[in-house]
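PROTOCOL LOG
Step 1. Enter all chains and additional molecules of the complex.
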Amino acid sequence: DQQVKQNSPSLSVQEGRISILNCDYTNSMFDYFLWYKKYPAEGPTFLISISSIKDKNEDGRFTVFLNKSAKHLSLHIVPSQPGDSAVYFCAASLYGGATNKLIFGTGTLLAVQP
Amino acid sequence: NAGVTQTPKFRVLKTGQSMTLLCAQDMNHEYMYWYRQDPGMGLRLIHYSVGEGTTAKGEVPDGYNVSRLKKQNFLLGLESAAPSQTSVYFCASSNSSPFGQFFGPGTRLTVL
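Step 2. Run joint prediction.
Step 3. Record the structure below.
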C-alpha cells in the first residue's frame, strides 16, 4: 500500500507560467513533508519542506501548500523556468521517530517549455 | 566538503556475482540510508543505519546486506546478484532534523 502518491507522472508548462505538482498521502501521523528535485544522472536534492502544523511555506519561487483534512499537498513554482525541468519527488517523514526515514512518492517529471 | 559520495558510479555484473557499493559522507551525520530507484517506483528504502555499528531493514531488503563499521561509511553488499537488482542505487545521510536527507550522485548497476 503506497502511503505517498503522486498521480501525475508528467507535467508540461510554458516558461513564465505556474507549475503545480500534487501529492496525496494516507498516513495522518506524518509530521513533515518534503519536496526533492532530481536532474538526470544526479541524486535528489532537497527543495522545500513543511511541517504538518503549517498550511503554507514559501521560499522564493517555490511554495508548498498543505491540506491536512484532504491529506494533500502541492508544490507551486512561479514563475516556471526551463531550469526547473526535472523530476520532483514528494516525501513524508515521521520526524518524531528515531530514524528520520522518508517515504517517497513515485515522482512527477516537469518539463518547462521555453 | 564533498557531501555524500558513492563508489562506483557504474557497474555491470553477471548473475550470481557479488559486489559492494561504498557510500561515504563527511557531514558527521548519524543516519545513513540506501535506496533503489526504478522506473515508476520512486525511491524505495533498502536498509538504513541510525548510528555506527547499527543497521536495520527498510522496505525492500531482500538480497542485500549492509554494514556501518565507521560513522562516515555505509556499505551495501549484493552476495549473489540477480537481474531484478538492476537499478540505480542512491545513498543518503542526515541528522535528526526535518530538513531532509542529503543524497549521493547514485550508482547505476546492471545485472545481466
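Step 4. Note key features.
Residues 24 and 73 of chain B are 5 Å apart (CA to CA).
Chain B has a mean pLDDT of 94.
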